[in-house]
Design a protein that fits this description.
With 133 residues, the chain is mostly helical. The protein is built from 6 helices and 2 strands; from the N terminus they run αββααααα. The protein has one domain. Strands 1-2 form a two-stranded antiparallel sheet. The model has no long low-confidence stretch (mean pLDDT 94). The site of zinc ion has 8 residues, from β2 and α2.
Amino acid sequence: MSARFKGKFHRQNMLSHFAKDLVRRSRSHCELCAKNGVKLDVFELLPLEDEPFLNGCIFICESCKKQIVYPKKMVPSYWRSLNNSLWSEVPAVQVMSFRMLRRLTKKEERWAEELLEHAYLDPELEDWADLAE
Ligand SMILES: [Zn+2]
């Protein structure tokens, strides 16, 4: 078994351990779009640290995840829920919401620009948000 394979396995294993806490934190609602009754997955924010950590993860549905991973598939109107998730108590959810709003402003979505103008992130979260798209 290669070291890289073991590393990946270890990571998956740790992430699956986070799921129980994330079910509680999210109350089984997607932390970005608030959908419930759908399959939710642990998603790590970039850039990845050597060891995954709970507060670096969000718990999200397939539709959100697909649009995060494949920006070309992003449907702007889908993301109106950022209006709520931006004010989440969970720092990683705030950071991911902020990043998605930035992506939307690049598509010249006016509502996203307005939301971003009124958004407030702690300076350290803004630094985190700046580390990836
Ligand atoms: Zn979602």
